[in-house]
Amino acid sequence: MPEVQIEIGGRSFEVACQAGEEHYLYTAAKMLDEEAAVLAAQIGRIPEPRMLLMAGLMLADKTAGLQDKLREAEDRLAEKDAELDQLRNAPAPEAQRIEVPVVPDAVVDTLAEIAARAEALAETVDGARAG
Q1: Is residue 68 one of the residues assigned to a domain?
Q2: Is residue 57 part of a domain?
């Protein structure tokens, strides 16, 4: 079981931990040290047991607040999951029929032929008048 040296509130401590957990211990000690620094700035030098107790309580208070926020986020996530399940299980919307007016090619060709004939007749009539 490895032993690591940590510093909290300007005081050194030797602490044992499980192999591979040293990083977590250093991170936790850093958090506790930051709270101890806040206490030292506000109160000044205080006895070690009191400093550790107060810093621990301050961290516990922050942790409790985070746990409340986590529960709220989990509740919102559960609501959204339920909403998503409801949408997934809802029947598909009924297909809508959309009609788009389309002029068949045969009609277009016929109209073009009629227009060409009308123009030819107009030219014939114009030519007969002029001549």
Answers
A1: yes
A2: yes
